[in-house]
Amino acid sequence: MNATKAKLQLLESRAEQTKKADLKPNQSVQRVKAKTRKKIKFQISMLERECLSTGGVTNAIAKRIRRYCQAIPDHKLVFFLLNFPTEPWAQLADVVHLRPSDFALDYFLAACHGQGELPPSSLVATARDCAAADLPRLLEAHPALRRCYSYLRKRFEGALPPAARLAVAQLAPLEDVLWFFEELHTGAGGEGVERAVAARLAAGEPIAASGRERSSYGKLMERLLTFRKLGLADIASHIEAYADRRMAGIRLAGADKARVAVLGDCSASMEVAIETSSILGSLLSACLRAELVFFNDRLVFPSVAPAGARDVVAVTREVRAERCTSPARALYKYYKMKQPVDLFVVVSDEEENTPCEGMMFADLFAKYRAEVHPRAQVFLASFLEGPPGFLGKLRAALRAKGVGCRQFKFDRRRPDLSKLPHLLGMLALEVGDAAAAGGGGEGGGEAATGGGPWALMGEGEEKEEKEGKSSPAADDGNDNKSNLPSHAEATAPAASHQRPGKREALPSSEKLPKEAGAEETLPTHTPGDAVGLPPSVPQDPPALPPIPPEGAKEEEEEDLPA
């Protein structure tokens, strides 16, 4: 709120300067255009809506906050006192009038206000005053301290003796021990740490800890590769078995009905993220039961189709970052073979710099839709650098061609595979849409011009889908140039460009008169058909996605933060 008020004051001062500029144009204040003044006034009005003229904490809100504070367990309060500043708690207590009895630790509120001394027997006082040599005894006596390794590693940075590091490896949460294994394993006593971790894994102790995401499948694979590099095969084998169990539970609904291909970038520009990219491509291939192809300026086929953690490690170790970037090279394989694919998942940094057969990816994909599979879709798992609104070269090129696609972003310098569950959630939507629209059949995938969840199906088309019929536009193996519309049809307004508001189904295709007892449908016009129209005939915009209903979220806004 303070930031909003400060911004409001700044805008008001700028608006005042514009008034002075109008009154005294010869003064040092520079004249501001009317368009700029209008923009400033609009921003001021929007910020004024956020500022509350009156307000306060009601008794109902105070009761809810008090109940929340009473539900916090004591070990979490200890963690808060050891790791985080206490000023926000003191401010909250002043506003809500919290009492010491509202917390599981009776000294928590006094510690937040800095009043009095902590009880000498309390864990907080003991942890703050203890020496590194006393740490093994404290970990044994205070189980809650075992959950605070993030505090201990800062409190005794680089000064933990071998006995303390061994105690942490034996007693701390296994997830923390695996995550910070290099710190505990380095130096004297490293073999004892290794044996302790291997014994805990062999005993079947669960890795996951509540409220954490360090044990997701992607992070486990990163740790597995690290232990392989360190030569710790015993620990790696246990993590591999655990990762296989986690991977067995990752199955996306509809993956067996939709045809999916994963295209992984292994060009030189992916040097920093090549390992993460290989893990991601191999994992998605296994979860989606998809064909996996890597590309630079040529095709790179993995030696094994990933089906488990061992296969993912094998593929990751053999992929190397080299040569130029040409995602069109991977797509050309499917275009040349006329192989219909419902969804292409492209794992890349989008630094496309080399064409294939004279075409970039967006051009070739438009051609693939027109000649092979008009309902094919693209999903981008991108390693990017830039502001949150940065699209990436590949998505921008697809957008220019009228192709809508979802995109999930990773930081190119520090890719974080803990975001993998969110990525799989977005892919589940894509695969589910492809399966619901008839994936796995000759016309699988989504509508050719729809691209995303806003594509609607007419009643007649839906009926034909259920009866197993397919329109000429959905025929994957035919050339759509034979389906050119007539001049009257080309000049008629497109039904997909209606104004938002009413969620009306697209009109079903008109019926031609029956000839020889057979009922034929009028060929559906697709964006790829416009190439053969005479210059005098107005053409539809290329592959413009249907306008979503009011209040719907646009497809470009569905990206998750990196």
Could you give the distance between the termini? Answer: 26 Å
**What CATH architecture of the largest domain do you see?**
3-Layer(aba) Sandwich
CATH homologous superfamily designation of the largest domain: von Willebrand factor, type A domain
Helix content: 40-55%
Structural class: mainly alpha
Fraction of residues in β-strands: 5-15%
**Largest beta sheet: strand ordering:** 3-2-1-4-5-6
Radius of gyration: 31 Å
Unreliable stretches (pLDDT < 50, length at least 5) are 439-562
How many E strands?
Answer: 6
Descriptive account of the structure:
The two termini are 26 Å apart. Helix 10 runs parallel beside helix 13, helix 16 packs antiparallel against helix 17 and helix 18 packs parallel to helix 19. This protein folds into four domains: 49 residues; 65 residues, no CATH class; 119 residues; 177 residues, von Willebrand factor, type A domain (Rossmann fold). The C terminus is likely disordered. By secondary structure, the chain is mostly helical. The chain is flat, with a radius of gyration of 31 Å. It has a six-stranded mixed β-sheet, sandwiched between helices. Helix content is 44%, strand content 6%. It has 23 helices and six strands. InterPro entries: vWFA_dom_sf. It comes from Heterosigma akashiwo. This is TROVE domain-containing protein.
Features:
562 residues; mainly alpha; six-stranded mixed sheet; 23 helices
Write the layout of secondary structure elements.
Elements: H1 2-23, H2 34-50, H3 59-70, H4 74-83, H5 87-96, H6 108-113, H7 123-129, H8 135-141, H9 149-155, H10 162-171, H11 174-179, H12 181-185, H13 190-202, H14 217-229, H15 233-248, E1 260-265, H16 274-288, E2 291-295, E3 299-300, H17 309-318, H18 327-336, E4 343-348, H19 361-371, E5 377-384, H20 393-400, E6 406-411, H21 420-436, H22 459-466, H23 487-491
Parallel strand pairs: 1-2, 1-4, 4-5, 5-6
Antiparallel strand pairs: 2-3
